[in-house]
Amino acid sequence: MTPLLRSLAACALVALPLLAHGQLAMLRPGAAGPAPTLAAPSKPDGQMRYALGAGASYLSATSTNAATFNLGAESAVATTESRWRFGGKALWSRTVGETASDNVTLVLVQESHHRWRGGTWLTEKFSVLPGLRAGEGLRTTLETGVAVATSHFISINVGVLQRYDGNAAVRRSDPVFVTAIALKLP
Fold it and tell me: What is the 3-state secondary structure (H, E, C) of 30-84?
């Protein structure tokens, strides 16, 4: 087995329990709303919960070396009638080769779900992202919608996504109509 395959196998073994834990957190019995998208645990008791994470990587190739380091933090508070999530991630990357570059990226996300009636939820998510190219300002997205749980296993989501890019040459904003069917496996 090559060193690369050994490294990938070791990473997969380390990540497997974390993935299983994340999947179990989304399959809460009796949850008749949209599945959570952040890693902070969400119990409907009104208590604030937190998740912190960090990661690093290094790549050494023939003509290029690259290193990255990231930090992430998320918090969540939930009751039987609403869920609020806040998160952020900072990524530092450095590439050394024909040209050297350092980049720092910051992503902020705020998300909420509010029960309207029974299994019907009003959803909202606001994200602040870096520009598509380094040094090009910020992009934002605002997602709003309605999620209806038709049964314990299936929900239908309908919404509008509004994107804004302050540095776009022609169109600064871009609305998108979104529909989805979500299936929760037991």
Answer: CCCCCCCCCCCCCCCCCCCEEEEEEEEEEEECCCCEEEEEEEEEEEEEECCCEEE
